[in-house]
Amino acid sequence: MAIVTEKTLPSLPPPVNTVGFKAWSKQNLFSTPLNTLVTVLMLVFIIWMLAPIVQWALIDADWVGAKRADCTSGGACWAFTQVRFNQFIYGFYPETEQWRVNIAALILVLGIALLTYKKTPAKLYIGLFMLIIYPIMAYVLLHGGFFGLPVVETSKWGGLTLTLVLSLVGIVASLPLGILLALGRRSELPIIRSLCIAFIELWRGVPLITVLFMASVMLPLFLPEGTNFDKLLRALIGITLFEAAYLAEVVRSGLQAIPKGQYEAAKALGLNYWQSTGLIILPQALKMVIPGIVNTFISLFKDTSLVMIIGLFDLLNIVQIAAADPIWLGSQVEGFVFAAIVYWIFCFGMSRYSQYLERQLNTGHKR
């Protein structure tokens, strides 16, 4: 006997034993006796490892003090990071002018938040503002010399401020250059293709520390006598060109993954090279290589610590300088832990955002 109904029945919830933490742990941690044994052993190992760390970092820690001798509990001396926190963030930037750094950072955070929020209206104009207007505004705020703002030389920039400046400028400037190099390497014009290949292979053939050394020490030797420009600007140029070469190869891998039918379909629609590249090919290629692009950005963020070789002090290097102060000798571990936490927050944030972008832009290439 068949039962026929014209009404759509509501969806039933999944069985109770297949959802929730209990079902997940049973499926992933305790599915077999061997997996149960491994899980228990790993939990014991983690507790054995974490217990002394928690004891050192929290229970026995000293949070207040003016010098290393004030830390007498035997645990971490977080008083060091508390006293030196301002230097870790701003480097040697004058304390009376640090409000300018705060305003630049606030605008940056607000702009990124608006761009990442899905329902933000006029996102195109906000993006253009962040790409064109904001860099000029940030330079005026940080460097000064305009609207009555006193000049703060770039040699006084440091700490997390310098790390973010190097990373953001490197990311924003190297991505479009890397895309152009990738397109040039796949060009049918032999001169353009050869020049792009030579550029990419030249910069990929040397380490970043060599590039920074060349930009700081060797480059002025090839310039006319009396010509000199800012050390930070030289570092930014070197980092941008270096990262652009790596990004070019990442983007090229995405371009090569586009099926030939996409190119033929674009030609069938009557689109010229730039129209088909900008509207059809490049968006798909960039979407497929998001993990590789973000991986390059994360690597760039961490490599900024190499600027120490040319006399610039980013977050990691400013921590080393602060720990070398005689009244804080012995506080290197606390300083490095602080720097590691800051680096992890930024790198993990970029990683999670790339995963969010992959989910939002997934239109069928996922296998």
Write up this protein.
There is one protein chain. With 367 residues, the chain is mainly α. Helices cover 67% and strands 1% of the residues. It contains 15 helices and 1 strand, in the order H-H-H-H-H-H-H-H-H-H-H-H-H-E-H-H. Helix 8 packs across helix 10 (231-257), helix 13 packs antiparallel against helix 15 (332-361) and helix 14 packs antiparallel against helix 15 (332-361).
Brief synopsis:
With 367 residues, this protein is mostly helical.
Keywords:
single chain; 15 helices
Topology (elements, then pairings):
Layout: H1 20-28, H2 33-59, H3 79-83, H4 85-90, H5 98-116, H6 123-143, H7 159-185, H8 190-204, H9 208-218, H10 231-257, H11 260-268, H12 273-288, H13 290-303, E1 313-314, H14 315-323, H15 332-361
Helix pairs in contact: 5-6, 7-8, 7-10, 7-14, 8-10, 9-10, 10-12, 10-13, 13-15, 14-15
